[in-house]
Design goal:
188 residues, mainly alpha, 2 domains, 7 helices
Length: 188
């Protein structure tokens, strides 16, 4: 597998792919100071460097060669990069990007078995495993253990499969007749 560690090369490759994938601007009334391909390259840099939106903004402010690689005159704001992520990273667009990457890899001589095999895979949530907190992982493990102890759930809730249905209303416990104080005898 061919990999690249150069952030400049990553931005150039992502910019070239973005130019093939997206229109120049998101809307006809946009400010037109940044193209979608440039923002896509910033998102690729963010993932490559494992940075936050603010982190990639700071990196682009500090490194003029990164900005120059894709023709940026200034670093985009972190909110702009986040909005670009919301706009550009959608299942249909990502699937098309993977198809273009596979076609380009084949054209460059990389051997790919069949057309169904893609060089990258995404989870349906579009979140990465590094975005999961340790607290969430611990709570998920606790919930799984509790569910194993309780047994399988039924449609009516946590009742065992052979229990009579309660109809959603709890029956009040009846008072035990032996615990009542004796009523006084009628006077004659």
């Amino acid at each position: 597998m061919i990999t690249c560690k150069s952030p400049v090369a990553i931005m150039r490759a992502a910019h070239a792919l973005g130019e093939r994938l997206f229109d120049e601007h998101a809307h006809k009334f946009s400010r037109k100071d940044l193209t979608l391909a440039q923002l896509f390259a910033c998102l690729a840099l963010r993932e490559h460097q494992r940075k936050s939106y603010r982190g990639v903004e700071a990196l682009l402010i500090d490194c003029s060669d990164l900005r120059g690689a894709v023709g940026l005159t200034r670093a985009p704001d972190h909110n702009t990069i986040w909005r670009a992520f919301e706009h550009l990273v959608k299942p249909g667009k990502v699937g098309r990007a993977l198809d273009l990457m596979a076609a380009q890899a084949k054209a460059e001589g990389l051997k790919i078995r069949g057309d169904a095999v893609k060089p990258a895979v995404l989870d349906s949530t579009h979140f990465e495993s590094r975005h999961v907190s340790r607290h969430f992982e611990r709570r998920r493990a606790q919930s799984a253990k509790q569910a194993q102890r309780r047994g399988p759930k039924t449609r009516a809730g946590n009742q065992p499969p052979n229990a009579p249905p309660t109809g959603g209303v709890r029956a009040r416990p009846s008072a035990c007749p032996s615990s009542r104080s004796p009523s006084p005898a009628p006077a004659t």
